[in-house]
Design goal:
Elements lengths: L22 H10 L4 H10 L4 E5 L20 E4 L9 H4 L3 E3 L6 H9 L5 E4 L6 H9 L5 E5 L3 H14 L4 E4 L3 H5 L5 E7 L12 H5 L3 H18 L3 E11 L8 H12 E4 L19 E4 L9 E8 L16 H10 L6 E6 L2 E6 L3 H10 L2 E3 L2 E7 L2 E4 L1 H5 L10 E3 L2 H8 L11 E7 L2 E8 L4 E3 L23
Length: about 475
Amino acid sequence: MPYYGSHGDCAFFTTFAVMKLPEEFIEQLRGLLPEEWEALADAITASEPSVAVRVNEARGVGVPDGCRRVPWCSEGFYLTDRPVFTFDPDWHAGRYYVQDASSMFIGHVIRHFIQEPVRYLDLCAAPGGKTTAAIQALPQRSLVVANEIVPPRARVLADNVVRWGDPRCVVTSNAPAQIGKLTHFFDVIAADVPCSGEGMMRKDDEAVAQWSPALVEQCAQRQREILTDVWEALHPGGLLIYSTCTYNRQENEQMADFIVHDLGATSLEVPIEPSWNIHPAIGSDCHCYRFMQHRVDGEGLFMAVFRKDGNAPRQEIRIKEKMSKKADEIGKNWLVAPDEYVVDQQGDLSIAVPQDIRRELSALRAALSVLHAGVELATVMGRKTVPHHALAMSIVRSADAFPTCEVDYLTALRYLRGESIALDAPRGYVLVAHQGAILGFANNLGNRANNLYPKPQRILSTHLPDTKPIVLMV
């Protein structure tokens, strides 16, 4: 089956040990890199992966002084070791995202080609590293649609988008063929397609165990189907950013040639620095960018950028959404700039949507399965209104909407485990914070506080460390 690991995000990480690569894979490397295959094979089998994170500047976080930065990403930096991120409140608060350094290249690509707000689709988005990087790199007022066809992975994607806190991201769970029916809807499509996972072999034993020449061919066929299915959703003149986490030419350069000659596109050059040690295309005239472990401090990645041939306007939206007056009052009380939002009721859930993307969201809801959009404000049941976790995480929540209670590190971990805690705060709904990082809501009853941290995101470990992992150094 295609590799559905992390596609460059650090979701998987195996205990370091020297591994044995399949003989047929070694032969493939020899043919691919006659002068460098041994260095790459040694890097895969006998070196440890680096660990990198990308800070969320929208939360006022910067790269700590003295850290070794990711060369192609101003928000990324390397850690000297890998802490247990689960025990860091800053991670739960969306202050940073754990992402392989190679995958951070997407931000550099976006900033070079895109200067005006766009409709951006991240087609195979889970778990969310490239989505949050795109949110960070795109011009303000862009709309980001993050899609994942596999339901459990789509839920993880939605959780990570909520944690990042941006109100202009919509999470969907649909097949590429369904999205392709949105003719000329998107200005940019990023397709980090399921692949054979050769670039992840160093940190994921599964990628080694499942590899075979047959898998490579299966993945290449599936990639052609995905690109063909979604192609009509990209308007002529729009951009396609294609990427894999594998090495072979079938899924990389041959796919780039397919995009140019069969789909109708022009290969675009991305400016890079020689010091980055990115390898060019192998056996293709297309501009391609290969990240390999013996050359860069990151995992295996392939990326290429294309402009769809032709010139036509993107699809106009004529759907009008009806909004709830009751929900609108909630939005006015809890958002920084309520006039910029419309708020409607989806079942018992009140959702605030930026005014300028409400018609796009209506079109997406009519055509696709939408899991998350805008800012989920509250669950409304009769006279009872319970603030939603997404509101706590949102970067557009008003700082004066709810009282905030600072807690120590161990109390923060107990809260993140879903335990009841005692708070020195007013009665009612309170934001729980640790060192200024908002973690979520609690309903303070006086002698105790009911924990409103979402069950799927809670820490499951029964062990609680005494000291906070050192990541942001705040």
